[in-house]
Amino acid sequence: MNELHIFTLFFLAMLLISTLMRLYLSQRQINYVSQHRAKVPDSFAENISLQDHQKAADYTTAKVKFGRLPLFYEVALILFWTLGGGLQWLDQNILALDLNPILTGISVILVFTFISSMLDLPFSIYSTFVIEEKFGFNRTTIKTFIIDMIKGSLLGLAIGVPLLYVILWLMEQTGDQWWIYTWLVISGFSLFMMWVYPTWIAPIFNKFEPLEKGETLNRITSLLERCGFNSNGIFVIDGSKRSSHGNAYFSGFGRNKRIVFFDTLLKMLSDDELEAVLAHELGHFKKKHIIKGILISFATTLLGLALLAWLMKAEWFYSALGVSQTSTYMALLLFTLVLPVFTFVFQPLFSIFSRKNEFEADAFAAEQTDAKYLIQALVGLYRENASTLTPDPLYSAFYDSHPPAPVRISHLNAHA
Question: Model confidence over 78-92: pLDDT tens digits?
Fold first, then answer.
């Protein structure tokens, strides 16, 4: 059996394995959450009602069940684009326009992205206006949804096309070492985007207001001074414009860092709880989790580009995936399309790393504030966001970047 057939079979085998694994995990999650729906876990019984617990169980189950439909669609679509000849058909039609290789590549990738986005749109609409609406979380209007989609598309074109042009030019013109130059460009671009995002990009979608003067701001400022954290401002975002879910995050890089609270979060938590949540976020900064995450991202990108540099020289890589004509842009598109099929089984490794960071950030917060306030804040967020308290352990290991609620609260209680 030749190389082409081996890789085709390997691709199909991994696609089948990853699909069956995702179906198996989803069924485990549904069964586990349903089995524990009738009773609130003992450690949460005083703070979360049975009604809230059951709402979280039903919300979780509804999302997991709905997620199966996009899964089958995703599998069908990847087979259509590859072995079904979809990319081959698209490539031939764009080649007929007789553009130069770089413009041809940009055109193929843009048309592919547009078609994929339009095919994904019904799932996004259903998730927002049916599931989120049913459980009382959606506040997005149709007008806002459409405007967000238009803004996102225009922003993607403005940022993505120049970057794509540079990458394809490097792949075409810089010889066998193109992947190193491309990695340098992507790494530099990523850092630049982290720096400009808070002040230039995020305000395109949301309104940011400085946190009003008062006790809340004073306590946050004091905490920042104790932790030696310098920021470019403390802001409140109009998250309630789209959802009732609450959140807080850091954005930016270097001196352009911002602390951002959702307006919904400010309504959920007391000042003590808010301070504890911010201390947790500061823990990520003090423990250098952000820098470590960036370095891991850079390392995996470098490995991926090195693998792509090897694959793009092999004709069997194209033909085994349904494309007859080799090209740099098609190698890039094929690689991006099929890579998740082969990497799904490694997801728990990233979850382990992420959860380790969360435990460390929780421990830091417990040193800076009273751990009981972070516990209260988390319990409140679990309740208000309808986060299940009883996720299936194996499902959670694959999909959850944060520790399951009972495990996390138990760790915090040890610090309290």
Answer: 999 999 999 999 999
